[in-house]
Amino acid sequence: MDLHGAFHVYDTTLRDGAQQEGLNLSVADKLAIARQLDGLGVGFIEGGWPGANPKDTEFFRRAAQELDLRHARLTAFGSTRRAGVRAADDPQVAALRDSGAPVVTLVAKSHDRHVELALRTTLEENLAMVRDTVGHLRAEGQQVFLDAEHFFDGYRANRDYALEVLRTAHEAGAEVVALCDTNGGMLPGWISDVVHDVIETAGVRVGIHAHNDSGCAVANSLAAIDAGATHVQGCINGYGERTGNADLVTVVANLELKLDRAVLPAGLLQESTRIAHAVAEVTNVPPASRQPYVGASAFAHKAGLHASAIKVDPDLYQHTQPERVGNDMRLLVSDMAGRASIELKGRELGFDLGSDKELLARVTDRVKALEATGFTFEAADASFELLLEEMVSGQRPSYFEVESWRVITETLDRRSAGEEAVSEATVKIVAQGQRHVVTGEGNGPVNALDQALRTAIGQAFPAVVKFELIDYKVRILDQGHGTDAITRVLIETTDGESSWVTVGVGHNVIEASWGALVDALTFGLRRQGA
Amino acid sequence: MDLHGAFHVYDTTLRDGAQQEGLNLSVADKLAIARQLDGLGVGFIEGGWPGANPKDTEFFRRAAQELDLRHARLTAFGSTRRAGVRAADDPQVAALRDSGAPVVTLVAKSHDRHVELALRTTLEENLAMVRDTVGHLRAEGQQVFLDAEHFFDGYRANRDYALEVLRTAHEAGAEVVALCDTNGGMLPGWISDVVHDVIETAGVRVGIHAHNDSGCAVANSLAAIDAGATHVQGCINGYGERTGNADLVTVVANLELKLDRAVLPAGLLQESTRIAHAVAEVTNVPPASRQPYVGASAFAHKAGLHASAIKVDPDLYQHTQPERVGNDMRLLVSDMAGRASIELKGRELGFDLGSDKELLARVTDRVKALEATGFTFEAADASFELLLEEMVSGQRPSYFEVESWRVITETLDRRSAGEEAVSEATVKIVAQGQRHVVTGEGNGPVNALDQALRTAIGQAFPAVVKFELIDYKVRILDQGHGTDAITRVLIETTDGESSWVTVGVGHNVIEASWGALVDALTFGLRRQGA
């Protein structure tokens, strides 16, 4: 079979993915995500349920006008007709018909008990609902898929009826019947057995729709495909209700890179890291660093022992080449770091340390000494780059001199109730020969220091106005010493285009934060070429 | 086979899990996690690599004295001897022998090219290293397992040699050879084929060690077990390098609940949600809400359509009963706790909430409201107990009234070099009718507040002199808002005999810390019967 032409990669991020707790997509969000999905080359984008809510109706209206899809066909999701009415007379079916989407995916019950309990109708009427609705939409010129809800549970409970639902849809003109593990509890061996039986017995084209409740959504999808399914549904970044749907990028990367099945248009898989992160920006769900293939940590190695071997043959230490999904190998500079990994890390940042053995030894010693006091450069590339710059040039990049700083946090008298604590910081610095004394306020001490420092420096370097602190992490080292311990702070800063991470360490959490703040502004100014 | 007796559930959180980017565990962290793992009933806890770094050596020293394991055997991880020396003369092997751990897991190369490239020795010498090291430790009375590193890649490259490594270990006395998918790129069908072949050809007892790089770590583990493996390695919460190791709780829950294999002591699986979250508090890695079985969203339904059907038969809408893993079904968004778990937790703390439904409902509502603002009571039992006491008696235990507090952190003029930042706090409180105004100093703002508050209260309640703050954790909620986010602080306090954890929340990290400090002293005084 020509898989490139025939195999369906079907994305349901905009419908089933949006069921995720805490995920709320506006119409503009959905349009933006649809464009990204099309850029990945998926074959179908399920946009929502027109008629079920005004947002989805509006999405299909705007999609018809604004979306210029190169690869994907827009798909409307909806239900079979209500019991006891004609499909042509059911307003919910009309909304699907009139959505402008060339494809409709109809959800139907295939588990006998759900027909009785949730639909409150007879098994016969449910079959008629499938037959009529599929037939009506086919007659109106739409391509129709069927989502057989709770299929695997239904198959266990009443195999004959579950298969009958599939056959009915197929005979009425549904091109694919997607078997849904709606509750997500299946395991790969079970999926495989059922898909084999369905294809052999019912003679239909099978799709798979898996959820991750048993942690096997990806493997379940692959098991179904191995058993003959030629249509796979999933969501980018594994979004979805409860534990999420099958992560479509992981499924597709496994198919392309491990099973040699070209299911996306050529060259597009390498867009997947960029696209997965771009979609995460729209959904505002922080990307999981441990996500397979596209996660920030997916190809990150705590080098140490193996660094020299990695230099000789990186493929011995990675399951695939990160470039194939648009990701990068990263070497983490950790307390196990040796010279080889620091040399490699330096090269990544544009410093050639390999040609100067003495310098490399000094950098390695310095990193080890700093790590012994609590620093980590694993995440803090920007602080590491400043350190390298200092060791190579003999001077740390510096745009301002700190004279002193102070921050006060206090509550007003508690008897005047309802007051929150407030923080106020004063910093005294010298920049470009000018002394600046600035006070800033904030809802926390670091917030106040950040305000004051950026205002002070901004008088000499207006670029810092654009800088924004977007993440702040505190880690207490040396547990067992309470507040008398070493504190490590990681700060992520953005200039609106890219972001960088800096680190600060100290007995005092405020001092550690200050160190990371100073590095953050210094790195940002250096990058701006200040 | 009697699986309950024979099957090995092997946790490597403290060794391989600790390889995760950004995860740094102190010795006290590792001891705390080991206690939790033992509470889950795993059979083996791999504690680290004694001799490889001072922290792991210290862990094994303290574990021998402080850990009183009921279910698990402590396991030391290390390498086969160096090339060209006797195992008995290798200091790395000596550290394993002298670790006090009854079990040693030796990592060995089983991929020919890794032997040549990373070990830089011959294939024959590698076999001798396996034979000698296993034999030596067995002769010294330790139980020995072998981790066959890069096994699946090695099997593809040179099947005969990979099998020879296993046979050699087995003949020298290794009880289990764990096949490691070190690079994590395998798929279930491949794992199944190789495990079948290994068991048939080499006649060894097989374990499985899977990583999640293809998103199939859980399915790969199950595939190996289905093919005959009787030892499974993984990490709680799926921690680990790159994309993580197999999530041990998901694997075990699938085995127990879906495959009817009792691999944990009876009754302990239902502790898994609590334990997974308690470990996350220690690692300070935010728990993934979409985590199978134990995630906050794992049994959360956007009810809507199905609400009435769910009420009739919830099992139609969930793949297993959440109580079996100690989790709860949730029908509404944004509430973290259900009544059942609050009733259970109350019982644990000596409050019978089950007999008063109205009280239980009020406590549940209050917990939900507090959790919505950022509180968590999963780890902070002491704050939860104060809350219960307040709800049951109508009054929060209180030994002092806070009038106001203030803390100043500052650096002296940097031109007088070498000075660290200092913090100074002033608190004004009323205890037993007496007003106390006390100033304390510290090397951080919370340390200064703690000093001042304890001095002030100590004048009325001398018992607090014994109290010591032994751990302090900060988590920024609402990632993506920088320093302008909600902060949650957890504080652990000891009176020299036992310790307790309290929680505070606020926009201002100092205010959140203050809330946790006040709870900590209040709880301690209550326990002393003040």
TrEMBL record, chains A, B:
Transmembrane segments: none annotated. Pathway: Amino-acid biosynthesis; L-isoleucine biosynthesis; 2-oxobutanoate from pyruvate: step 1/3. It is an enzyme of class 2 (transferase). Residues 7-269 form the Pyruvate carboxyltransferase domain. SUPFAM superfamilies: 2-isopropylmalate synthase LeuA, allosteric (dimerisation) domain, Aldolase. It catalyses: pyruvate + acetyl-CoA + H2O = (3R)-citramalate + CoA + H(+). Gene3D superfamilies: 1.10.238.260, 3.30.160.270, Aldolase class I (3.20.20.70). Its EC number is 2.3.3.21. CDD domains: DRE_TIM_LeuA3. SMART domains: LeuA_dimer. Keywords: Amino-acid biosynthesis, Branched-chain amino acid biosynthesis, Isoleucine biosynthesis, Transferase. One of its GO terms (molecular function) is (R)-citramalate synthase activity. Pfam families: HCS_D2, HMGL-like, LeuA_dimer. One of its GO terms (biological process) is L-leucine biosynthetic process. It comes from the Bacteria. Belongs to the alpha-IPM synthase/homocitrate synthase family. PANTHER family: (R)-CITRAMALATE SYNTHASE, ALPHA-IPM SYNTHASE/HOMOCITRATE SYNTHASE. NCBIfam families: citramal_synth. This is Citramalate synthase.
